[in-house]
């Protein structure tokens, strides 16, 4: 009798362990799908932490960026991508104040992260750990707060003149001031811009060139620039990116982006993306906990 009870008990333990294993697999699969993260409409509980890599992570205890602030306005709020680590929220609010002080038109803020970060549909590989934000180069045409419909219907516009291969004259001064203001922030790790924009700013005279080193050439960033912050304190599971090198990055490093090799590299990248043969960083185990919260 005792033996039968022990046998039943052993089977129960095995069953429980199997269920736990299956649950772990289900959470891992769920955390690996962008649709799962986009269905979550609220931040998770817990102390704010950026977790994992910029392109393979999540954010715990994210804060929402107010849609309006001093010197900035958030665009396309229906996408529900105006969440981030408090360090990112503070950066945006401080950038808006700096833009207002510099007498620039309001800064238009596009995507930050989803409520809990994670993989998102629509072309974003990063923006996963609550430390990335896209910002439009161009401000609103008219002063004042945009209406709800304007926020949803407006789209970013390229600041490049294709024929001249340069920044459009009417936007050149604003682009230079806004990017310098952005890159000057100590917490900013990188600012991704179109190679032509980087080249034009490198050609400008001036002795203060340290901020140019943070501008990283990347195709496709002609209508917005992408800001990436360093891992904040209190986020031990945040994976930092390698620091940018010293100097302004205006020499051979920049010249490569205008070479045949760069063009071929871009075409190869498009083919990999279209064929969906793109490697993705593994999702950190802690992100499974973040997405599993009610």
**Uncertain parts:** 4-10, 12-29
- Quaternary structure state of the chains depicted: single chain
DSSP helix fraction? 25-40%
CATH architecture level-2 label = 2-Layer Sandwich
Number of helices: 9
CATH fold label: Muramoyl-pentapeptide Carboxypeptidase, domain 2
Give the CA-based shape. globular
**Mean pLDDT over all positions:** 87
Distance between the termini: 43 Å
Please give the number of β-strands. 13
Trace the largest sheet across and list its strands: 8-13-11-12
* N-to-C series of helices and strands: HHEEEEEEHEEHEEHEHEEHHH
Query: What class would the helix/strand composition place it in?
Result: alpha+beta
Please describe what this structure looks like.
With 294 residues, the protein is an alpha+beta fold. The protein has one domain (32-292): Muramoyl-pentapeptide Carboxypeptidase, domain 2 (2-Layer Sandwich), CATH 3.30.1380.10. The protein contains nine helices and 13 strands. The strands form five sheets. Strands 8-13-11-12 form a four-stranded mixed sheet. The chain is globular, with a radius of gyration of 22 Å. Residues 4-10 and 12-29 have low confidence and may be disordered.
In short, what is this structure?
The chain has 294 residues and is an alpha+beta fold. The protein is built from 9 helices and 13 strands.
Supply the key terms:
single chain, 294 residues, alpha+beta, Muramoyl-pentapeptide Carboxypeptidase, domain 2, 3-stranded mixed beta sheet, 13 strands, globular
């Amino acid at each position: 009798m005792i033996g039968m009870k022990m046998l039943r008990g052993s089977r129960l333990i095995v069953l429980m362990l199997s269920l736990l294993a299956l649950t772990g697999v289900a959470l891992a699969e769920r955390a690996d799908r962008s649709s799962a993260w986009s269905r979550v409409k609220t931040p998770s509980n817990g102390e704010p932490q950026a977790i994992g890599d910029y392109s393979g992570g999540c954010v715990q205890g994210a804060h929402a960026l107010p849609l309006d602030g001093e010197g900035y306005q958030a665009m396309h709020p229906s996408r529900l991508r105006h969440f981030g680590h408090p360090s990112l929220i503070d950066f945006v609010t401080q950038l808006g104040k700096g833009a207002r002080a510099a007498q620039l038109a309001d800064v238009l803020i596009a995507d930050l992260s989803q409520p809990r970060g994670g993989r998102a549909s629509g072309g974003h590989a990063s923006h996963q750990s609550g430390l990335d934000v896209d910002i439009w180069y161009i401000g609103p045409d008219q002063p004042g707060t945009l209406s709800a419909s304007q926020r949803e219907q407006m789209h970013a516009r390229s600041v490049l003149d294709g024929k001249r291969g340069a920044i459009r004259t009417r936007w050149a001064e604003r682009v230079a001031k806004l990017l310098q203001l952005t890159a000057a922030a100590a917490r900013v790790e990188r600012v991704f811009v179109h190679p032509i924009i980087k080249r034009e700013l490198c050609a400008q005279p001036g002795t203060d060139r340290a901020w140019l080193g943070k501008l990283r050439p990347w195709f496709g960033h002609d209508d917005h620039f992408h800001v990436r912050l360093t891992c904040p304190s209190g986020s031990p599971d945040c994976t930092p990116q390698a620091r940018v090198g010293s100097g302004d990055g205006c020499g051979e490093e920049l010249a490569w982006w205008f070479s045949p090799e760069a063009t071929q590299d871009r075409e190869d990248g498009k083919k990999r993306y279209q064929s969906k043969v793109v490697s993705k960083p593994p999702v950190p185990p802690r992100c499974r906990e973040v997405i599993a919260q009610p």
